[in-house]
Write a structure and sequence with these properties.
The protein is mainly α. It has 15 helices and no strands. It has 3 domains: 13-141, no CATH class; 147-201; 214-341, no CATH class.
Amino acid sequence: MHDGGPVLAGRGRLLRLGVARDTAAVRHITTFLVVTVATVLVTRAFLAAAGYPQIGGGGLHVAHVLWGGLLMAVAFVLLLSYVGPSVRWVGAVVGGVGFGLFVDEVGKFVTADNDYFYAPTAALIYATIVALVLLVEMVHGRREHHPSEYLAVAADRAASGMAGGFTEATRAEARALVERGRGEPGADELARLVEAVPHDDVGMPDPVRDLVVRADRWLRGAVRLRWAAWLVGFAVVGVALSAAVAGLRVLARDAASPTWVGAGILGGAALTVACVGMSAMVGRGDPRRAASWVRRGVLVSLLVTQVLVFRAVQWVGVAGLVVDLVVFALLEVALREGAEEADEQVVQRPDRSAGTGR
């Protein structure tokens, strides 16, 4: 009988309860959120093009919120029915479509007359997505994974592999996870289990992961272009200026929104431009610091300015949102590559004290 008391005592409360975070969780949740937003946009575009048809008759109307609830239920059944990660991307996509159909009708939920065209609907949907993103950041972005969590994820992969086998790529991923959990109880046994999983030439398709890999490759190539920094700066400032125009329209009573919305838009846009200006001042000496300042400006735009823009001009704000998201992804890749280069320089730097007798 093994006494794990001393080992478990140093772990957090959630780990003590057996709640380990999946290292691929951010990818799955991002898939869910992207599909949610895409579903809302496609649904709105289709309904507008079709003249807002209604399913039903005789006083009945089958709203698409019901289809959304059904698809979310299907996603839950899938995720709760199968062991391992194989169906998680399917659950993320199906759940995203369902939640998109559900949240698209938020206007009916918050108005006494069930108004689908309620003006602040776009802002409410966007604020909901932002709140979920912040929740993901709180759960997955503030704490490094504990070594035991890497082992838990490796065991999850092995559970799937025991039924369907491992491709070479899947086995390499499981090995890497075990290595990151070395020193924890069960690591050696799990390593042997990973090697015992039978080989399989055909893996479970994961188009979402393939798309992420391709996008990461494209983004890495884009950030290495000589003019990438200038393009990012102009794009961020351009979005801020377009938002400022929307804010001025509100203040001029050309858009049906409260005055504080226009003032908030102008303030957020000004803060974003100020961050870009700071990046230009520090950019020559420290590119990573410059990218960090631009990232701050984009975060202000995403978390504050764009929410108010959607309140002011509703779905017209989608274009600026897309640009901000692409720029944010480029900055994340640039900062990650900068950190990797800095780590390599530290490793390769010669020990100045060698040979000095110190």
